[in-house]
Design a protein that fits this description.
8-stranded mixed sheet, 735 residues, alpha+beta, globular, 32% strand
């Protein structure tokens, strides 16, 4: 779930037409298109598996394109016939417009200035603004809608980064939710834009050099006609660009086979980081989605070509996941011999990781982030689902800051030259507000950059934190949000979300749009399943590769808890998974189809055995594994929902979604899953595929796109739960 808006055969079977209760025919709705079966059999180390829709992986095949369009048209027609949907959409839009604007990603600049993204209630995408002081005048810096976009699509801001003096800002603008950013540079003082732009700049932001007139950036290779799509994210390079010069003459300084000092594999993602006031630049080598970094350092002024000398600071076995710099001090966040992480410090003049000083030792809380400000190191921690913030003065000891709200923390603005920081605070029942900490007064104050919306502080909502015993006795955290007057009678529409990958924590958040569900008597729940980072690296590893089944079995246990405690019943329970959460929801419904009335599978990984052959597949091998080894195959097969769909099973109703420009989970994964479920299931419940042709993985989607999808999904679920006011006189169901 996005915080601020926040990722086939019907052979011999015809679609039956039913009332919402499945009792009579509908003569107006047509069946979704049937995809022909063209089986491909693979032999994985002696295990033969058949893939009936392998050809769908070619999304440029006109036949495949036609099938997707037909599925989407059918889905839109069916969803449009649900009574109550229009009214629900209107309510969702009303809730979304309750605040005059939404402000996020606030950065501090020298001179008391702030730069941030802001989207007015009437706008679809955010713009970039500058403000002189918290009460000063606001200035529009960049409007992504003014740049050309594909017909029927839109542009959105993917990232931005200011020069050290704050006078220039580099902005990554992406079309149609693709995340394929084009860098534009704007002069903050005049509003004028540099003539040159840089495309293929997906991985940002840029890192400015001390001269305030040049920066380092990562650029993807330009694929040749005969290159595989899986090579798109491989062999990218870091270049240095000087404002006003030709982009194609930029010199590479880091990348595959560029330097004998820096070892970089084809699938690695090289980035360069700089810190204001620091004479060194840092090469951060991201090994796909692996959290552990390889880091090198070099004098920033020496980085003018690939001949620069890099000094290695750490490698993957050192388990470093983040770094921060102040003066000669290098702070590192690591889980080596510390599952819940610790913070260590060494000197840049003579770095020695083996003898680094422990600044924060491993404790009960999980250390999730570190930043340096002019006055102190700030350490962010997660304590039983609640965010904590510790300040460690450079000349003093640690002190925990008293925050005005117990919930989640997101640090957005910290600069090693400036005292204090800017942070967002939110909870399950309160929308985020933007605060600043002043070390002079030792107070955390509301900046009022984010205006309070009418529905941002509802008084009738409560949240509960419980522990659920999973199948193997492990206690899994479960967060539950509902109205205060909820009756535990087993009759409440309930939506359970789960993720469980990359060591990511599912922190508390509040979205006013969700009131539309809660005021219908609905329950929202978050299962903090293994594979996430709620209890540190051990919790992550307990839901990865060989142990991945723990992820969906924890989810199933949380679903069963909600039923047993009478929050809901299987007839009123839906599961939700986004992106890697597609594994969670996909395997939950294929393992326990009886437990759910419906499922919402959002841009979900569904065909794990084939994922590595998609453009974003190679970077994900560290998290999920590879079919190039027998153990890897066995792990991926276990988590492949598509391969676990069984003919004749009674699956719940499923709404699958995809963005046609998705760079992370290719549309063929939800497409193949849709086709297989439609062909195999015998429950008579609908299997619908919703395609957003001007969107991607969710990042960069417009406000209208988000609100419309939410209305479609909520209406679909309420229809399947049999809730009054959402039952069509007649609709078509897949069978």
């Amino acid at each position: 779930m996005m915080r601020h808006f926040l990722i086939v055969i019907w052979a011999a079977v015809s679609a039956a037409l039913f009332l919402a209760t499945g009792t009579s025919a509908d003569h107006g709705a047509e069946s979704p298109p049937v995809a022909p079966v063209r089986p491909v059999t693979d032999d994985y180390y002696g295990t033969k598996l058949t893939d009936p829709y392998r050809y769908m992986e070619d999304l440029k095949n006109p036949e495949v394109e036609k099938w997707f369009k037909g599925q989407n048209q059918y889905t839109r027609e069916i969803l449009g016939r649900i009574p109550g949907r229009s009214e629900l959409l209107a309510r969702i839009r009303e809730l979304g417009q309750s605040a005059p604007a939404r402000v996020f990603d606030v950065h501090q600049l020298p001179g008391g200035r702030y730069i941030y993204e802001k989207r007015l209630a009437s706008q679809d995408v955010s713009r970039l603004y500058l403000r002189d002081g918290l009460s000063g005048a606001e200035k529009l810096l960049a409007d992504p809608t003014r740049y050309p976009a594909p017909e029927g699509s839109h542009n959105s801001i993917s990232y931005f980064s200011s020069s050290d003096d704050g006078n220039l800002v580099a902005i990554g603008v992406s079309p149609g939710g693709s995340e394929n950013a084009i860098i534009h540079v704007v002069d903050v003082r005049t509003g004028e834009e540099a003539k040159e732009t840089i495309d293929r700049a997906r991985f940002g932001p840029v890192a400015w050099r001390p001269d305030n007139h040049s920066f380092f950036y990562n650029r993807l290779q330009k694929l040749g006609r005969n290159q595989s799509p899986t090579e798109e994210e491989e062999k990218s390079k870091v270049f240095v660009h000087v404002i006003g010069t030709e982009v194609e003459s930029d010199k590479p300084v880091l990348g595959y086979q560029l330097s004998s000092d820096a070892e970089i594999a084809p699938a690695d993602i090289p980035m360069v980081a700089t810190f204001p006031g620091c004479k060194f630049a840092f090469a951060q080598i991201e090994h796909g989605v692996l959290n552990e970094l390889t880091i090198y350092m070099a004098p920033v002024e020496s980085l003018t070509s690939a001949s620069a000398h890099w000094q290695k600071l750490c490698d993957v076995p050192d388990a470093i996941t983040n770094m921060a710099v102040h003066g000669d001090d290098l702070y590192l966040l690591t889980h080596k011999d510390a599952s819940r992480f610790k913070v260590v410090r060494t000197g840049l003049s003579s770095p020695d990781l083996a003898h680094a000083q422990v600044v924060i030792a491993e404790g009960r809380s999980v250390v999730t982030n570190i930043v340096t400000a002019g006055d102190a190191l700030y350490v962010q921690q997660l304590d039983g689902g609640i965010g904590r913030l510790t300040r460690i003065g450079y000349e003093g000891g640690p002190e925990e800051l008293k925050l005005p709200l117990e919930g989640a923390i997101e640090i957005t603005g910290a600069d090693p030259r400036l005292p204090g920081l800017v942070l967002d605070l939110t909870s399950w029942t309160q929308a985020y507000a933007i605060y600043s900490y002043d070390p002079g007064t030792k107070k955390v104050i509301d900046t009022h950059l984010q205006s309070l919306g009418k529905f941002d502080r509802p008084g009738d909502l409560v949240s509960e934190e419980v522990k659920v015993e999973s199948y193997d006795g492990t206690r899994v955290p479960l967060s539950i949000v509902h109205r205060r007057d909820l009756k535990l009678d087993g009759n409440n529409p309930t939506l359970l979300d789960g993720y469980g990958a990359y060591g990511m924590t599912m922190d508390p958040y509040f979205d006013p749009h969700n009131i539309a569900w809660l005021e219908k008597g609905g329950v929202l729940a978050e299962a903090h399943v293994r594979g996430g980072g709620e209890y540190g690296e051990d919790w992550h590893k307990a839901g990865q590769k060989l142990t991945k089944p723990n992820t969906w079995r924890d989810f199933i246990a949380c679903a069963q808890y909600l039923v047993d405690k009478r929050y809901t019943s299987p007839a009123k329970l839906a599961g939700e998974g986004t992106s890697a959460g597609g594994i969670t929801i996909g395997r939950a419904i294929t393992e326990r189809p009886d437990l759910f009335a419906a499922a919402w599978d959002r841009v979900g990984v569904s065909n794990a055995l084939r994922s590595e052959f998609s453009p974003n597949g190679p970077p994900n091998i560290p998290e999920f594994g590879s079919v190039t080894t027998q153990f890897g195959f066995e792990d991926l097969y276990a988590m492949d929902a598509y391969q676990h769909v069984r003919d004749g099973a009674k699956y719940p109703a499923v709404l699958l979604t995809t963005g046609w420009n998705d760079p992370r989970v290719s549309s063929w994964e939800p497409g193949k899953m849709t086709a297989r479920l439609q062909a195999a299931g015998k429950s008579g419940k609908p299997i619908l595929l919703r395609v957003e042709y001007a969107a991607g993985h969710g990042m960069g989607s417009t406000k209208t796109q988000y609100e419309t999808e939410l209305a479609d999904a909520y209406s679909f679920l309420l229809w399947q739960f049999g809730v009054g006011g959402f039952q069509p006189t007649s609709v078509s169901a897949n069978r």
